[in-house]
Every structure is written in C-alpha cells, then in structure tokens.
Design brief:
Layout (H helix, E strand, L loop, with lengths): L7 E10 L5 E9 L7 E8 L8 H13 L3 E6 L16 H16 L3 E10 L1 H10 L6 E7 L12 E2 L2 E2 L4 H12 L5 H4 L3 H11 L4 H6 L5 H4 L14 E6 L7 H8 L4 E6 L17 H12 L13 E6 L13 E6 L7 E9 L2 E3 L7 E5 L25 H4 L3 E4 L7 E5 L2 E8 L5 E9 L5 E10 L18 E6 L3 E5 L4 E7 L14 E5 L5 E7 L21 E4 L5 E7 L4 E16 L4 E14 L2 E17 L2 E13 L3 E12 L2 E13 L4
Length: 670
C-alpha cells in the first residue's frame, strides 16, 4: 500500500527578488493541484520571523486555507527574519512599495489565478489597510485584525495626546531585540553571520522617531488610512476584540469608509479569534473563508448583504485575574452608525451622574501619581496579568460621579463621550476618565477609559499651553464598548489628572477644577433594538494543523505592584515570559524568550517616572547558538525625555557585538 499524495504542498522558503535586488523570504502553502489548477492567494506580510517566532501559528492558519483551495504566502518584511536589507521603522514607505512588488509576483506565479487577498493581525492588519490604499490591481480583499486606521489615535505611542508610557518603550525594546536576531543559516547559508553583523550595526531603535513626533504631524498621517478612506477600493473586513487596544478603529472605519466593509468585535484580546482567551472562541477561519470565497473566487454567498457590524454584547462580570469565556450574546447592526444607538446624557453634578444638571460648582482634584496601576494592560494578549482588577482602590483616588442604581437593564454600544468644563493651575496637564460598572456589593469593574492632554484641546496638530485658571470646554471620547449593565447596578465616572503608567505624567503636579453645569456631561451610547438583524452563527474553532513543538516553561507571567512606604515609591513589574524555551521539532530549532518590564514612580514627584525594559531572545540548533539582549530606560525632566538603549549579541555564549544609544528629546507640550 502506498501513502496518499499530499493535499498541501509547502515550500519552506521561496525568494522574492525585488527590483532593487533585495530578496524577501517567503513560505508558501498551496493545494497540491495548484500548478495545474491555479488558486487565489492570501498574503500575510510581517516582521516577526516566519521561520521561528510565528511558525506554529502560521502553520495552523495557512494549512487550513490551503486545504480549502487557497495558496497562503507568508513573507518576512525587508530587514527582518530571513529577508535581506534593514528595517528602519514600522509602516515605512519602502515596506508598502515592497508589498506592491510582492503582490505582483504572487499574482504572476503559475499556481495563482491572479487574485490576491491580505490578512493580518496587528502589524499585518495595519499594512493590509495601508497597501489596500495603494490600490494594487491584484489585491481583491483584506481582512484586518486588531489594527487601526489612525496611527496617532490608536497605537502604542500616544492616546489623546498623552505619551503611552505602558507601551511605547516596551514595544520599541521588543522590536530592537527581535530585529537584532540573525537570519537562519539553514535558509540563507554561510552568509548569515555577515548579514547579522550588518543588521546589528544598522538597525535603529524605533522609539527615536516615535518620540520625535509628539503631535499628529505628517509622520503619523502616513499610513493612517483615515486621511483618505476613499483610497481603499477593495472590500475590507475589520475585526477586533473588546479586550484589545485597537478596537476603536472598527466602528470608526465602518463609519468613515463608504466602500464594501464589514466589522466583527468579540470579547477577545490581541489574538486570533479561533484561539483567543477570554472567549468564546469561534470558527474564525471559516468566517474568513466565506470572505475569500466571495471576493477572491466571486462566489455569490451573500456575505455582503449581512449586517455591517456584529458584536459580542458582554454581560456583567466581576473582575478577576484569570478569565475564561465572557458571558454574553452576539448582536448585529444593519448599519453603522446604528439608528438603534442613541446618546443618553447624564450630567456631572456634586451628587453624581444625574439626568438634569445642577447649579454650577467647582470641584477641585489633585491626582495621585500611582493612580492607574490597577487598570491592566493597554493591549492585552491574554495572560491573566493583562486584565484590570477591582477598581475600588483606583476610584478612591479620583473625582467620582455615580449614577443612581439602574431601574432596568441597559445595553451600551459605541463610544461614550465626555464633555467637561475645566480649569487647571499649570500650563501642562491631562485629564483621564474611567467608566465603571458598580455592582450592588460595591465591586467596580472597568468598562472604558479616555485621555486628553489639555494642550491638545483644540486638536492634535496645533497645540497651546493652558492658561492657569482659565476655563475651557473640552470633549473626550472614551474607548468603544459593548456592555450590558444589569438593573440595580450603578455607573461610575472617575476623573483624574493622572493614570500611570498608561499616560506619562505632566512635569508638575496639577490641580484640576471641574466646573459642573450644562457643559459637564457624559453621553452614553444606549442601544435599544428589537433584534431584527440576525447575527451570523459561527461554527466551532478550527482544529490546529499539527506542528511538533516542545515547550519548557520558565517562570509564570506575573504582574506585581510593590509600594515602598518609606519613600512612597510604587514599582509595577510585569514578566511576560520568564525564560520560556520552545523547540520546533521539525526545524530542529530551540527558541528562548525573556521579557521583563518595570515602571517606577514616587508619590508627589511626576519627574520620578521611569520605564525600564529587559529582553533576551535566543536561537539554537546543534552547534549554532545565538542570542540578543537589550536594555532600555526612559525618564524625563521638566523639559526633555531621556532614553537610553543597549544592544548586545552573543554567539556560542561569547559577546560579538555591543552598542548603546543615549538621546535627549525635548518635550512638546507633554
């Protein structure tokens, strides 16, 4: 008896040579019959090393699509993984230019019909939108997960004009480490070492450009497709999760783009929906297949006639450190903005959130530097340490506005909008807001947050200091949410001038005066629907294609807060993976990763804020043993940010490269 022929053929590495001679490394999965019966292709275009870091995930996704009649092409961006060249920044023009050549190359292969789709999460979701805006004729559709249409509004850099202390340096440090790893000798041959040393010498820390652009200038407008939604002509499916940091982009894109588009928001963090925690997980690849069948194979399956937006309406849940499936149900909206969602206004009064405004009053507040430590990660990936805990300790540090207990259940869907009349005693200051669900027993569950750097009160391009004591009317859009509030619960709005480490603190301690009256209100997006729109019924999660791996777990992830009561200093430490080792058995390759971040601040001293990050990434096969270590630190005085990075590389345990950078960057109204 002979073995049956394979249904899927995998090319572990294919070189795509660009017009300038640079070679990009690609892995291709395709039906075994595609050479004689061409199929459409799906491109995923990432910097995260197809040969090791994403190999297991790539296999589970790519094999599924190949088994269902598509080629899947996973490409390392220029300067990353096994590809030639240097990567100097995220979403650079050359990244998009290269992608146009890659798409043309794919379309011209003998196994492709000429129709190409793009799929990706995070970076791959970003560049799917960006490349669609370049209108390559072969690109017929995009699925963009956990991404954004506005690089300044929703990414790891800035929120409401506030520098995102919890993400900017840690993410830059991660990219410095992964970009410093060498290509695999098994793929590139004997030249791997010279390529590696050149990469180490020339690859910059990404944070340099990010912090040089502290307002929404042309740097951020590049790659922000909200600048011209009409540039995108192919159908786009936007996917997000309530626990993720990028979800605002889903309804914003649906509202701003007038072409064929569709949105899906589940309870998920920054992860593919078929294996995300919290769940419920869904058969997401099946849903993708319907999108591809319609737009890459021209099958009339009616997906474009379905509701434009489908979301998991979450039920109330007590905060907990570990989460399984979130209770709730799928609901659908035929249009967005939805006629079933209306703004229900509550006024901020000395007695709390009320339906009518009260006589004007000035409520003063001086924020605590450690407020925000319990708010969780801005962009959770799923570990228990990512999620916010009971907010009562945080609430005690804020101006609080509670509603009366609700007479009946309320469903919120959309972005709450906060209007405030405020004055501040310093030229630089911020306002932060948290919306919480307070249960009858007092537990406070975080629902949504919002931020505004008051020097950005007129927009994020032209800035002006605050005139101390002068009153300003400002608006803050809180993060989008889909949440049911049970009868008997209260809504709580918590306002402060701090939120560490989410927002980098102002250089001086500030006192905010919130003036109650007609101009201080909260508009809640209340959904009232008779459920005429039928949500799609998703199948169960797909079973992953086998890829033999062996994991040696290190220290479990943790999130620790230490308060030194003598110095009144708070230290938040997060270990995202303590010396975990994963072996890719088929590739005979062992991967090592260590990620440690630490945020420090002293009460009453905003200039004591400090972020410190350590990274170690290693690769080992036989007598090939390499590793990269980075250390990054960020502090600030009243006028400048100080950033220092170091990068070391090791071969067989011996240091072969070391470099450090020290930069001072002026604070620009931050």
């Amino acid at each position: 008896m002979t073995d049956a022929p394979p249904r899927v053929v995998t090319d572990a590495n294919v070189w795509i040579t660009l017009a300038d001679g640079c070679r990009l490394a690609a892995r291709v999965w395709r039906p075994a019959t595609a050479e004689r019966d061409p199929v459409p292709a799906i491109l995923e275009y990432l910097p995260y090393r197809k040969g090791d870091a994403t190999a297991a995930r790539d296999e589970s996704v790519a094999a599924y699509f190949a088994e269902h009649g598509y080629a899947y092409v996973r490409v390392d961006i220029r300067g990353t993984g096994d590809s030639d060249g240097i990567i100097e920044d995220e979403y650079a023009p050359i990244e998009q230019d290269d992608a146009l050549e890659v798409i043309a190359w794919i379309a011209e292969t003998p196994w492709c019909t000429g129709s190409v789709g793009m799929i990706g999460i995070s970076w791959g979701g970003f560049n799917g939108l960006q490349i669609a805006a370049r209108r390559p004729p072969q690109l017929k559709a995009v699925i963009s997960m956990c991404s954004t249409d506005d690089r300044y509004a929703d990414d790891v850099h800035y929120l409401g004009g506030c520098l995102l202390g919890i993400e900017m340096l840690p993410w830059a440090s991660y990219m410095l480490a992964i970009n410093g790893l060498p290509p695999d000798p098994k793929t590139v041959g004997d030249g791997w070492r010279s390529t590696w040393l050149d990469r180490l010498e020339r690859t910059p820390p990404f944070i340099d450009r990010w912090i040089e652009h502290q307002r929404r200038d042309d740097y951020w407008k590049h790659g922000s497709v909200c600048e011209d939604y009409a540039a995108i002509e192919c159908p786009v499916y936007m996917v997000g999760g309530w626990a993720d940091g990028y979800t605002n982009a889903v309804p914003r894109f649906l509202e701003g783009h007038e072409g064929i588009r569709k949105g899906l928001i589940g309870p998920w963090p920054h992860a593919w929906p078929q294996h995300a925690t919290p769940g419920p997980r869904i058969g997401f690849l099946q849903e993708c297949l319907r999108w591809w069948d319609r737009w890459l194979k021209d099958e009339a399956n009616g997906i474009e006639d379905e509701p434009i937006l489908q979301v998991w309406m979450q039920e109330a849940l007590t905060p907990m450190s570990a989460r399984g499936d979130r209770p709730g149900r799928w609901v659908a909206e035929e249009r967005w903005p939805s006629p079933d969602v209306t703004a229900s206004r509550r006024y901020l009064t000395p007695d709390g959130l009320r339906e009518t405004s009260a006589a004007p009053a000035g409520l003063q507040h001086r924020g605590a530097e450690h407020h925000g430590l319990l708010s969780g990660a801005w962009c959770p990936y799923g570990p228990a340490a990512d999620f916010p805990s009971d907010q009562r300790a945080e609430d005690a540090l804020c101006l609080l506005f509670d509603s009366p207990p609700l007479d009946e259940r309320v469903e919120l869907l959309g972005r709450p909008r906060l209007g405030l009349e405020v004055s501040c005693d310093r030229p630089l200051g911020i306002v932060t807001a948290r919306l919480c669900d307070v249960s009858p027993d007092g537990v406070s569950t975080l629902l949504s947050t919002g931020f505004l750097n008051l020097t950005h009160r007129g927009g994020h391009e032209e800035l002006s200091p605050v005139v101390p004591g002068e009153r300003y009317i400002v608006e803050i859009d809180l993060n989008v949410l889909g949440q049911a509030i049970p009868a008997g619960h209260r809504l709580r709005l918590a306002v402060s001038t701090t939120s560490w480490p989410l927002a980098w603190p102002s250089p001086e301690v500030t006192t905010l005066t919130l003036h109650t009256g007609e101009d201080s209100f909260l508009d809640l997006p209340v959904r009232v629907s008779d459920e005429k729109a039928e949500p799609v019924v998703f199948g169960p999660p797909e079973e992953a294609s086998p890829l033999a791996t062996t994991t040696e777990a290190g220290e479990p992830p943790y999130r620790r807060i230490v308060h030194d009561t003598v110095t009144d200093t708070y230290v938040l430490s997060i270990n995202q993976g303590g010396n975990e080792r994963v072996r890719l058995d088929d590739a005979d390759l062992e991967m090592e990763v260590q990620l440690l971040d630490r945020w420090t601040i002293r009460e009453g001293d905003p200039l004591s804020a400090e972020v410190f990050c350590e990274r170690r990434m290693g690769r080992r096969r036989g007598d090939w043993d390499v590793a990269v270590e980075t250390r990054s630190r960020m502090t600030a005085d009243a006028e400048t940010f100080l950033i220092d990075d170091s990068l070391e590389a090791f071969e067989d345990g011996r240091r072969v490269f070391a470099r450090s950078w020290v930069r001072r960057v002026p604070r620009d109204h931050v």
